[in-house]
Design a protein that fits this description.
By secondary structure, this protein is an alpha/beta fold. Among the domains are: 1-162, Alpha Horseshoe (Serine Threonine Protein Phosphatase 5, Tetratricopeptide repeat), CATH 1.25.40.10; 516-683; 691-710 and 756-947, Rossmann fold (3-Layer(aba) Sandwich). The strands form 5 sheets. A 6-stranded mixed β-sheet has the order 9-8-10-14-17-18, with helices on both faces. Strands 3-2-1-6-7 form a 5-stranded mixed β-sheet.
């Protein structure tokens, strides 16, 4: 029991952050060994308990305490402690030794011999002197006859399993892996162990974990992730590997979170924490996993209550460890929650927790911890009116981050300070901070791939909004427009042409025709609109934030869902008062009373009303459409009066609305006087305008009349949100491997058969009759495999227009599951899953002027901050189309048929411009040319033209 217990191990990452002191380890160990040598149980007990208390992630304390328990006559408790030691380090000889002693004392000689073989295999010592001493100590305290154990030990040695050189090489490989020392021969070393008479199965299990740690320390994240996955697969169902599996899941979650896969990271850390539960004692590993989960939840919206719950769990773990470091982390997170969440921030509770966190951070003397706490402490100082103090702490903290090249944290600090200045109406100072922040955003983005940039911008989009709002106050329209462009369609730009410069007002003016006006929107606070109105000759800045109107409209309509008790209604006449979580809330300002959730609900109700043609809902629908005109278009109506074509570059939730349906003051739909189209951004417009497609392309290729399996033939297995995260995680793994068959994942969420759509057959057959060079695929010929084959041969590049008429779908829970259905033969469609999804669409090769999806809900999808909707429109533009015609809600068969037939007749036979033709068709609907029934927006407004 002497020699080779050292202060090292696989949990180097954990122990480094809490600054464990090797001297303390050595002192506790020395006390134990003093008692061991003197046969003093009290010192053995004290030394081992202090090791378990101060170093709960090291196997040594548990192993030594197990030996002490044996000496004290408690074999049952010894077995529990030995199992803890083994779980922490299954390739150390010491847990096996003590398990062997326990088995011998319990009268289990075969088990004792087996464990002894494993211990001897892993020993790097050339003699067994320390084992013989152990036997003497045990015999002294238990008065048991250990002669048979000595005989067994001699027999094990004679079996030839003792190979100190091999054990040392394997141990050095394993420990060195965590420090970045390559170990290329680990498989060969493990093979030698496996060839032994008593092969230890845990040796082979630990190989992929060792590789994963080594790859991680060397910065090879992709291979590290693969090896962690391999380890978890190999050890599935093995309770003895719970500690290591939990550790692997933790680091795998870190890897996923680092590549901005927050959902996959959350799923993985949840599994790691669940797997840790049977271990049953607090550790730095547990605290670190809880802390990591808090960081993961930061990247997922609407998880604040769960984050608070985990922070309190971390507080309990930190108390169990008596760790000031993790207490500070917990208090910081709890304080931030009370500062930034809830109807009204609880400044008192927040200040209390953050002050404790700040004081502990100073005591721990960890600069990164102090900086992290400062990030929230700054906000408290600002809310207390101490702006100078807030600015001083911000700059000091940010400079520390910059010196250590931690740019994302410095960015966040400057962003927070920018909003502090903005809220204090110090706009030039706010701009200075926001510009520092955006510069760091661009620096962080430079090291990310396109998908990572999409996720990152979703996290930091607020800084561009703050910058735009500040420029609005200073009237710097050129800089404002640049901020607007930087805050949208970054992923699409990256995938189209990553090195193109961000568009300027001059770029926009060069793209605009004399009869066109471009409206680029930004949303500041909920309902606060900043509009850049650009023509080919001038650019103007407009602003609208009718907070009184927003609150009155909310109280008149969307507040109805709250079921407010009648006696409270008189109090709600005050615009600063709201009903929240069962009680009245008095806000300091009207602006604070109108929340993001209120604005989102306004958009959702508008969409639901637009989907309906019920007569009883028409008055409400008209009220909503007038409200939207007043909010979004009235601020620029003097400019609009001079221009026929209005090009909308929307922001955030505005992407979900058809501006052409808004009602003007004279009760006319906006489309009646204006052509309306949409662009993701002017930068994207600039890229699309530079494309050059040949004039000899055929007019159209159309797919419709698909045959599906019966509707409801698939029973979904995914029920809760975590099941959907499982599916999303599986999809991401497949995409990383180039596998685009998602049949299993689609079926898990209930994607199966569907009702036959006779109208889609009629639709494409009609289009096929318009010209001889229109190509049509119907029935089983409309298959995903056929479609991809046409793409592979280049056939799809030969058409100006592509129409797919079928069932469509989108989901923001699993963004990859936006797409359209193809035919579903009884025997399947070769290697395809019969769904053409956004990730597959983006890999197509198109030269189309327009892609039309005659299907439901194809124009919506997941809304990303700093991007807009990333769905089918994005995918088809990346694939090579210059424009799309997609739907914002479930479409009516007859209304769709009228739209498509009239559109393609003009486009195919007269080569008319699709956008202009669509606008004329919509006006014909409104006028009643197709009958009074079809005057309602439900029939003509869902299809929007996006692109050039």
């Amino acid at each position: 029991m002497k020699s080779s217990i050292v202060f090292a191990g696989i949990l180097w990452a954990v122990l480094s952050v809490v600054q464990a002191q090797p001297n303390a380890f050595n002192d506790h160990y020395a006390m134990y060994m003093e008692g061991y040598a003197a046969r003093d149980l009290s010192k053995m007990k004290a030394g081992s308990e202090q090791l378990m208390r101060d170093f709960p992630d090291e196997f040594a304390g548990y192993y030594l305490h197990a030996f002490y328990q044996l000496c004290a006559g408690d074999a049952g408790q010894a077995a529990q402690d030995a199992e803890k030691a083994f779980r922490i380090d299954p390739i150390s000889p010491y847990p096996y030794l003590v398990k062997s002693y326990i088995a011998f004392i319990k009268g289990e000689p075969d088990q004792a011999t087996n464990q002894l073989h494993y211990a001897v295999q892993l020993r790097s010592h050339k003699t067994m002197d320390d084992v013989h001493t152990d036997i003497d100590v045990l015999a002294h305290f238990t008065e048991a006859d250990f002669s048979h154990f000595g005989d067994a030990l001699a027999e094990v040695v004679r079996d030839g399993v003792m190979n100190p050189a091999l054990a040392l090489a394997f141990d050095q490989c394993f420990v060195g892996a965590s420090k970045g020392t390559p170990c290329d021969n680990i498989d060969a070393l493990a093979a030698q162990f496996n060839a032994m008479k008593y092969a230890n199965p845990h040796i082979q299990q630990i190989v992929p974990l060792t590789k994963a740690i080594n790859y991680y320390s060397l910065g090879n994240r992709l291979e590290s992730e693969k090896q962690f996955e391999a380890f978890l697969t190999l050890t599935a169902g093995d309770p003895s590997m719970a500690w290591k599996r939990s550790y692997a899941g933790w680091f795998l979650s870190i890897l996923k979170n680092d590549r901005y896969d927050a959902r996959g990271a959350l799923l993985t850390i949840n599994h790691a924490l669940e797997g840790y539960q049977p271990i049953g004692f607090p550790s730095y590993q547990l605290a670190s996993m809880q802390l990591h989960k808090i960081h993961v939840l930061d990247g997922i919206g609407d998880k604040q209550e769960e984050k608070l719950q985990v922070a309190h769990q971390l507080e309990q773990t930190a108390n169990g460890l008596n760790s000031d470091y993790f207490k500070a982390k917990a208090y910081n997170s709890i304080g931030a929650h009370h500062l930034l969440n809830g109807a009204v921030p609880d400044l008192g509770k927040s200040s209390s927790y953050l002050t404790k966190a700040y004081q502990l951070a100073q005591q721990v003397n960890d600069p990164n911890l102090t900086r992290e706490v400062n990030g929230n402490y700054i906000i408290v100082k600002a809310k207390q009116g101490l702006y100078g103090e807030a600015a001083r702490i911000t700059e000091e903290t940010a400079q520390g981050y910059l010196q250590d090249s931690i740019y994302d944290q410095a960015q966040n600090l400057y962003n927070n300070l920018g909003f502090i200045y903005f809220n204090n109406k110090s706009y030039p100072e706010a701009i200075t901070q926001f510009e520092k922040s955006t510069a760091l955003v661009e620096q962080v983005k430079s090291g990310l791939d396109a998908k990572q940039k999409l996720a990152y911008m979703n996290e930091v989009a607020g800084v561009y909004g703050g910058l735009a709002m500040s420029y609005r106050h200073t009237g710097e329209i050129g800089k404002l427009f640049t901020a607007q462009e930087q805050s949208r369609s970054g992923y699409l730009k990256e995938m189209l042409q990553h090195d193109v410069a961000t568009a300027t007002i001059a770029d926009a003016q060069s793209l605009l025709k004399p009869d066109e006006v471009l409206l680029t929107y930004s949303i500041g606070r909920p309902g606060e609109l900043i509009i850049t109105a650009i023509t080919n000759e001038q650019a103007e800045l407009r602003y609208h934030y009718p907070i009184d109107d927003l609150l009155r409209f909310k109280k008149a309509y969307t507040d109805r869902v709250k079921k407010i008790p009648a006696p409270l209604n008189p109090y709600l006449n005050d615009l600063n008062v709201d009903y929240h979580d069962g009680q009245l809330v008095q806000y300091a300002t009207k602006e604070a009373a109108y929340k993001k959730a209120d604005f989102v609900l306004l958009v959702e109700w508008t969409r639901q009303l637009l989907e309906s043609d019920r007569p009883d809902l028409q008055p409400m629908q008209r009220d909503f459409l007038r409200f939207w005109y007043d909010l979004a278009l009235a601020p620029v109506q003097d400019i609009l009066a001079q221009y026929r074509t209005v090009i909308i570059s929307p922001a955030q939730e505005l992407n979900y609305l058809p501006f052409e349906a808004f009602l003007t003051p004279n009760n006319a739909h906006f489309i009646e006087r204006h052509d309306v189209r949409y662009i993701p951004s002017t930068t994207v417009w600039k890229i699309l305008a530079a494309r050059r497609y040949t004039a000899d392309r055929k007019p159209a290729i159309a797919f419709g009349g698909a045959f599906y399996q019966p509707s409801g033939n698939i029973e979904p297995t995914a029920r809760g949100i975590e099941d959907f995260y499982h599916v999303s995680d599986a999809i991401n793994r497949k995409i990383s491997l180039g596998d685009y068959n998602f049949k299993q994942e689609l079926e898990a969420v209930g994607f199966g058969g569907a009702n036959y759509l006779a109208g889609t057959l009629n639709e494409v057959q009609y289009i096929g009759s318009l010209a001889d060079d229109v190509t049509v695929f119907t029935g089983y010929e409309m298959s995903e495999s056929r479609f991809k084959a046409l793409d592979a041969t280049g056939e799809l590049t030969q058409y100006r227009n592509l129409l797919i008429s079928t069932h469509g779908f989108t989901t923001d829970i699993i963004p990859e599951f936006s797409g359209v259905m193809f035919s579903q033969p009884d025997g399947g469609d070769a290697n395809e899953d019969t769904y053409l999804l956004a990730p597959e669409i983006a890999r197509l090769h198109l030269n189309t002027d327009l892609v039309v999806l005659s299907a439901c809900d194809t124009g919506v999808g997941k809304l990303y901050g700093g991007e807009g909707i990333n769905g089918l429109n994005t995918a088809f533009l990346i694939a090579g189309s210059n424009a799309t015609l997609l739907s914002l809600w479930p479409v009516d068969d007859a209304g769709t048929a009228l739209t498509m037939q009239n559109l393609f007749r003009k486009v195919v036979q007269e080569q008319a411009a699709a956008g202009k033709t669509l606008h004329a068709i919509k006006r014909a609907f409104v006028k009643g040319d197709f009958g009074d029934r079809y005057k309602q927006p439900k029939y003509w407004a869902p299809f929007i033209y996006n692109g050039i």
